[in-house]
């Protein structure tokens, strides 16, 4: 009887333990380098006047690598293709201000949130200056610009289904489309719209009085099937939330723009 129980118990262990699984953490430590997938958009990640990457995500990923005792390598990737690139193992983790959505979560695993943001809208004064409220943007005569594959495009489709949507590979192109008068407005993660309006007060204004159109939770994106990596990165976020580092760093980039805005290269 005791033998039978022992066999049964060992069978349970054998069926619950993975036969083989990719270990992102082991790969990173063996390589001595954390490869981070990201895409540039202010102030999450951007180029300075010397061409170096700076921004909230850059600081987060750099500290993450330091705490792991490895180097960091940034892998700039078009946002519309960043999840396929993660799955194809072009890098280890997405640290790029990615909002948690159920649709994305079907494909990738998310850590606990490490940042919280909202979407705001910058509009062209000549084209939309007479609009009274958000309902005026939901019209077939209205054109909205947004970043391809990002949350703002999904929000634009949901909130303004009658409007025409033009998608661009990066925020800079979408904002330029509005500044040139080819689109009524663009939606992006705050504070990018606010910064752009501040730099172009004669041609742009904050729609909806500057109030956020939505709120989002941002998390690291990981390939599925690796609970150890998910646990480690989530706990790293938890530790640096509790000790205040994430909030302090977030405040620097999102609330103290006068400290760094002159460092940013043009057209971002």
UniProtKB/TrEMBL annotation:
GO CC, alphabetical: cell envelope
UniProt similarity note: Belongs to the bacterial solute-binding protein 3 family.
Ranges for domain Solute-binding protein family 3/N-terminal: 33-257
Domain of life: Bacteria
Keyword entries, A-Z: Signal
Protein's name in the database: Transporter substrate-binding domain-containing protein
Species classification: Bacteria, Pseudomonadati, Pseudomonadota, Alphaproteobacteria, Rhodobacterales
Main location: other
Coiled-coil annotated spans: none
Location(s), subcellular: Cell envelope
Signal sequence residues: 1-21
């Amino acid at each position: 009887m005791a033998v039978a129980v022992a066999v049964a118990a060992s069978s349970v262990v054998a069926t619950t333990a993975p036969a083989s699984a990719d270990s992102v953490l082991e790969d990173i430590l063996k390589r001595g380098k954390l490869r981070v997938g990201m895409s540039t958009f202010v102030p999450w990640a951007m180029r300075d006047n010397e061409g170096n990457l700076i921004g909230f995500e850059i600081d987060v990923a750099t500290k993450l690598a330091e705490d792991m005792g490895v180097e960091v390598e940034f892998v700039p990737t078009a946002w519309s293709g960043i999840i396929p690139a993660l799955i194809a193992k072009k890098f280890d983790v997405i640290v790029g201000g990615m909002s948690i959505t159920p649709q994305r979560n079907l494909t990738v695993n998310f850590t606990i949130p490490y940042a919280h943001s909202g979407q705001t809208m910058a509009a062209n004064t000549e084209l939309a200056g007479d609009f009274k409220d958000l309902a005026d943007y939901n019209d077939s005569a209205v054109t909205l610009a947004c970043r391809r594959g990002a949350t703002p495009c999904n929000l634009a489709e949901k909130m303004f289904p009658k409007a025409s949507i033009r998608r661009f590979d990066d925020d800079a192109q979408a904002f330029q489309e509005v500044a040139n008068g080819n689109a009524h407005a663009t939606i992006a993660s705050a504070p990018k719209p606010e910064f752009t309006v501040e730099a172009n007060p004669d041609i742009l204004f904050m729609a909806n009085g500057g109030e956020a159109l939505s709120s989002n939770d941002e998390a690291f994106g990981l390939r599925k099937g690796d609970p150890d990596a998910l646990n480690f990165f989530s706990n790293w976020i938890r530790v640096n939330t509790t000790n205040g580092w994430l909030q302090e760093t977030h405040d620097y980039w999102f609330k103290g723009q006068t400290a760094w805005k002159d460092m940013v290269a043009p057209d971002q």
